[in-house]
Design a protein that fits this description.
The chain is an alpha/beta fold. It contains eight helices and nine strands. The structure holds 6-chloroguanine. 6-chloroguanine binds next to strand 5.
Length: 249
């Protein structure tokens, strides 16, 4: 997958993509991330990317021209390559649809993504109306710009690309992959400061372990994020368990 990020602050992207799982994915050529400075697509000598809002009010608005030109230039470059299908052009903005594991999964299917980092003050409406194909927010709070949100989305998507994680199963049990929060994990020592690892995990009984983990996922989800249970796929027995526990609470 090739990911293009358009931003006014390219320096913010030093670091997150140069560590751990991400760096390994880049080294193995499973993903390429290119950062583009929106200012490089301006034509005046001050490289002006924003301007006053028509109608007045505080805050500057990102101008449409450099963003259109940057995206169009990338688009023609990308569409010259072979085997390119639909090309999502995604604006990161608190006005977007709420990002989720499911949306991460959808995005992981594309060969290319273009992400545009918006700014809190705003972006000219013609970009929303006539350029982007999708708008994403990462939560109900306001960040100063879309950069951190773009990093969040890219991280969540890259983990899902085939071959990125050590073993294919690692992503399967992740919190949210199943629609439930993940079960508790333990490693050695079996007892630490008097706190023991649950007996069943030491038993070697794989079906009992799987059953315990599944229950723990359900319990933890019920405790912390009960609304997730409405959408999770549960067996009829698990449904009954949830209804019983809800009744007790
Ligand atoms: Cl995508 N951008 C900004 N500026 N703030 C946000 C956001 C995005 N998602 C949540 N808050």
């Amino acid at each position: 997958m090739q990911i293009h990020i358009l931003t006014l602050f390219p320096e913010m992207f030093q670091g997150p993509f140069n560590t751990g799982i991400f760096q390994r994915a880049i080294d193995r050529k499973l993903v390429r991330v290119s950062i583009h400075n929106i200012r490089d697509y301006t034509h005046d000598k001050h490289h002006t990317a924003d301007d006053y809002a028509y109608g007045g009010g505080a805050g500057m608005v990102l101008k449409p021209e450099p963003i259109f030109e940057a995206v169009e230039s990338l688009k023609s470059e990308i569409q010259g390559e072979e085997g390119v299908g639909a090309l999502p052009i995604i604006l990161l903005t608190p006005k977007g649809r709420l990002f989720s594991q499911e949306i991460g999964g959808e995005l992981s299917k594309y060969s290319h993504l273009i992400l545009i980092c918006g700014h809190y003050e705003g972006i000219d409406e013609r970009v929303h109306q006539h350029l982007v194909t999708d708008e994403i927010s990462i939560g109900d709070y306001v960040l100063s710009g879309g950069e951190l949100a773009a990093m969040v989305v890219v991280d969540a998507v890259v983990r899902l690309l085939p071959g990125v994680l050590g073993s294919e199963v690692s992503a399967v049990d992740d919190s949210h992959a199943t629609g439930l929060l993940e079960y508790p994990q333990y490693t050695r020592p079996a007892e630490y400061r008097g706190w023991s690892v649950p007996e069943v995990l030491l038993s070697g009984n794989h079906s009992q372990i799987a059953k315990w983990r599944r229950e723990q996922s359900i319990l933890r989800t019920l405790e912390r994020r009960p609304e997730l249970l409405d959408k999770a796929s549960l067996s009829s027995e698990e449904r009954k368990l949830v209804d019983r526990l809800k009744g007790e609470a």
